[in-house]
């Protein structure tokens, strides 16, 4: 499979250096953006498989903010490139779709190793998603309480026929809970299924579910103390 890779880098020398490494590793479809606006234009028109995102790019959004913007619409694996390895930077970036970090200056070996791990993880997630989609075809609509319905195939929540708008993470949580109704789901499972095993805090999960429950007040998602949640239908 020929992957399409996007390098987001506002330094021409740094871009050419990384591009040269990727070409030596036999990657041919390499795209370039120097700011967040160009990134959004490219991903809108092209299926990008993975993004090398410089954290400190020029423009209205830095690399971390750009990834957060992308995450609202797309799921694209990210490898951050940065000259900063301090804990504050890593902490700010870790809640996004991060599959790796490259600390500048990096070598061809480090790029190859990081990319290999990221692509392998990406393919495993695709397989898991495909297997789940096959299983979920047996389930189409789930009747929730007080006139709410959830359609598995279209990932649509409706109230008496009207569509309820949710964010990507809210929808992902609802989708997973609806596929596992009346089952106790741990925080760890939610981390793996919704945040792809990233190290996020339980409070982040609670905040996301709290926002979901505010939008759907009668949705019966109950908290299990020090464990997780259960959707009762």
Automatic annotation (TrEMBL):
Domain Response regulatory: 4-119
Positions of modified residues (4-aspartylphosphate): 54
Transit peptide found in the keyword field: no
Membrane-spanning residues: none
Ranges of the DNA-binding region feature: 139-233
GO molecular function: phosphorelay response regulator activity; transcription cis-regulatory region binding
GO cellular component terms attached to this protein's record: cytosol; protein-DNA complex
Residue span, OmpR/PhoB-type domain: 139-233
One of the GO biological process terms: regulation of DNA-templated transcription
InterPro entries tied to this protein: CheY-like_superfamily, OmpR/PhoB-type_DNA-bd, Sig_transdc_resp-reg_C-effctor, Sig_transdc_resp-reg_receiver, WalR-like, WH-like_DNA-bd_sf
Keywords from the UniProt entry: DNA-binding, Phosphoprotein, Transcription, Transcription regulation, Two-component regulatory system
Manganese found in the keyword field: no
Coiled coil: none
Domain of life assignment: Bacteria
Protein name per the record: DNA-binding response regulator
Organism for this UniProt entry: Halarcobacter ebronensis
